[in-house]
Write a structure and sequence with these properties.
alpha+beta; OB fold (Dihydrolipoamide Acetyltransferase, E2P); 29% helix; globular; Lipoprotein
Length: 230
């Protein structure tokens, strides 16, 4: 079995834990999420994976081969809903390139992937919501639903729902949820992080074609709501 197929198999067979972990990472804030709800999300994630919802492409930001998996997660289609669901809303920029950040992947005993994430150091320039939790110029470590694994000496990006990592040197507004361990993670996948830049098309260019239009529309609403239009 080739390396690419093995990675797919790790994602598909380990999909139940992977998808549940990402759903929790991306949307811990969901009100009233019971153990039964978690189990239901877990089963749904597994069913989607069994249908073959794993994609392959080349990252437009790093040039690395990328394996993408679909996920079950709590999504928000309106800016006001996203604002209300967020525990923390920040403006700032990552301090490191993606390949330099810490990937935190967990595995089952049989080697299948249970959960993936990247820890991103994010320098705060402005706090939009919950100023008491952080201070300006602080660097906060946040969780992104994307990671790099190394297999047979080759690095491969694992991502979910075509999530694109935050880029060093760009300024973003990000919407974060606080998990049970007190850590903050990006919620709503790509529509929980938006670049603030004069040329918004450069950010869209690194995203999958299927999500560009929706992200562009959402971005315009976010920038307008918070007075961030260039």
């Amino acid at each position: 079995m080739g390396r690419r197929k093995r990675i797919q198999r790790l994602l598909v067979i380990g999909g139940m834990g992977l998808l549940l972990g990402l759903a929790g990472c991306a949307a811990e804030k969901q009100d009233g999420l019971s153990n039964a709800d978690s189990a239901s999300m877990q089963e749904t994630g597994e069913a989607q994976e069994e249908e073959g919802s794993v994609d392959e492409n080349i990252s437009k930001t790093t040039g690395l081969e990328t394996v993408n998996a679909m996920a079950t997660f709590v999504g928000y289609a309106k800016v006001d809903e996203l604002d209300e669901a967020s525990d923390l809303i920040l403006i700032g920029t990552p301090t490191q390139d993606f390949v330099e950040r810490a990937s935190t992947n967990t595995y089952y005993a049989d080697g299948h992937i249970q959960d993936i994430s990247t820890l991103t150091d994010f320098k705060i320039e402005r706090v939009i919501k919950n100023e008491e939790d952080v201070e300006l110029e602080d660097v906060i470590r946040i969780i992104e639903p994307i990671s790099i694994i190394k297999q047979d000496g080759v690095k491969t990006i694992l991502t979910v729902e075509d999530y694109v990592e935050l880029q060093k040197g760009k300024t973003y507004i990000i919407f974060l949820g606080k998990n049970t361990y007190g850590r903050y993670s990006v919620i709503n996948m790509n529509n929980g992080r938006f670049a603030i830049e004069e040329d918004g098309n450069s950010e869209l260019a690194v995203m999958a074609d299927s999500i560009q239009e929706k992200h562009s529309e959402f971005q315009k609403e976010v920038l307008e709501k918070y007075g961030l239009n260039p």
